[in-house]
């Protein structure tokens, strides 16, 4: 999509040198327990920040690099080359929370949270979905009632990724039950250590506890933790969600590139023409995806896009499923091993990590808004096709 100019090339070489000297070795995607992964990622985030390479997209006044988009893309390319860990467990904080605070937060909110996020001291989750509000997010019913300088919150969220390890939550609540549904929603920052919160992890088919139900009983949230104005939350959460389908995909696509490189090594070990051809065709597709991501981000940076990130999300999630399915066929029976047995083997190549990656790949056709909804968005807002009949706007 773009060629390195001499300045960008120098930047690339400096970062490459840093990665070669500092990136953790022997680390593999999906090959450790969530707790170990968290510690690997926290330590890597701190190393990046200490080396002056942390939070590339943040402004320098908040401790970020203020890197250009081209520099951020270069860093992701170099991360993939070096097999550096993506700091996904801090992704909600570094990407979603930062984007929301920078655009809509108060200076006090930014100063309270951004430094601790950078130190790896704050983990965040997102409390948007509810049992009756997924695709139709505006139907959410968790209630917040104003009481002086506080809101009192009652209700339930579901599918909150990492809530069991999180300190804070980006929360959507209903403050006006009478207004048209997307006009009565408020966005607040919730301290998950507050009294009245019960977090129940949901065990996924991976065997891990990736997401949670969160219950609120008379939880007190100061009005100073509100983002934007009361009842303006719908508009604000669109920024958070667009981030999830755009910039957030940089490390995710980086992970897929790493898996594609691993598939190349697998094909080499198998040594057949067929395996080589399969690996080559996925290499071509992952390259196309990376180009599409670069293009979407560059367009977004110039304010020319938004909804096109849905194309990216659909393509990424379905490619990831196809790639990991093909890898399972290459690996054969070992792919059926599940964590932790999958990683006790001596072999570097044949283990169960592809099974983990494959199961995990299915989540992305739902997370961040299902692919059916993304196709509706592409049809209506990108291609200009007639709108799906519905009483009022409800697409997340
Ligand atoms: C791995 C993972 C992580 C997640 N993390 C979080 C999180 O951190 N925080 C959070 O708040 N939520 C999270 N979610 C929830 C996610 O955003 C919702 O699951 C998603 O928006 C779909 O909502 P739903 O599950 O209620 O399905 P529903 O909305 O009930 O949809 C059920 C099915 O109907 C289809 N459908 C619904 N409406 C339409 C329509 N208008 N046209 C065509 N098809 C339609 C959907 O595509 C889907 O296939 C996560 C989900 C996953 C899988």
TrEMBL record:
Keywords, comma-separated and alphabetical: FAD, Flavoprotein, Oxidoreductase
Molecular function GO terms recorded: flavin adenine dinucleotide binding; oxidoreductase activity, acting on the CH-CH group of donors
Cofactor annotation: FAD
Any single GO CC term annotated in Swiss-Prot or TrEMBL for this entry: plasma membrane
Annotated protein name in UniProt: Unannotated protein
Pfam families in the record: Acyl-CoA_dh_1, Acyl-CoA_dh_M, Acyl-CoA_dh_N
Coiled-coil spans in chain: none
